[in-house]
Amino acid sequence: MKPQKSASLVASAVNLITAQRLGRRVCSECKEPEDIPKQALIEAGVAPEEVDQYVCQRGTGCSVCNDTGYKGRVGIYQVMPMFEEIREMVLAGANTAEIKRESMRLGVKTMRQSALLKLKEGVTSFEEVLRCTVADD
Ligand SMILES: [Zn+2]
Asked: Which of 17, 43, 71, 83 is the most exposed place for a label (fewest CB within 10 A)?
């Protein structure tokens, strides 16, 4: 299939694009606050003005989680509706970097940002955010 033809098909047929990764869930039986330096949170992608809202949690290990500190998984999602702006860019043959930049401008969260929300909610640990996602993905 010619590239132009497939771009046209993608632009017309796709309504939503999602990606998912599974992170480990902090064990609720042995979770306790973990003191992560503010600078480390900022380097991981937390906005400086939001850093005080983060009370990180980690599991210390118990019989329920086999001393791993984790029990179960949590889905980390990236969701991008096929915005009209993106549809037009696909049709015009825009490259991945251009589409990514525009989708961020339109408010699509990165995998890392989604993982940081799970950290903020105390669902997963800082270690797990760094393990599952990279700074700019
Ligand atoms: Zn536990």
From this structure: 43
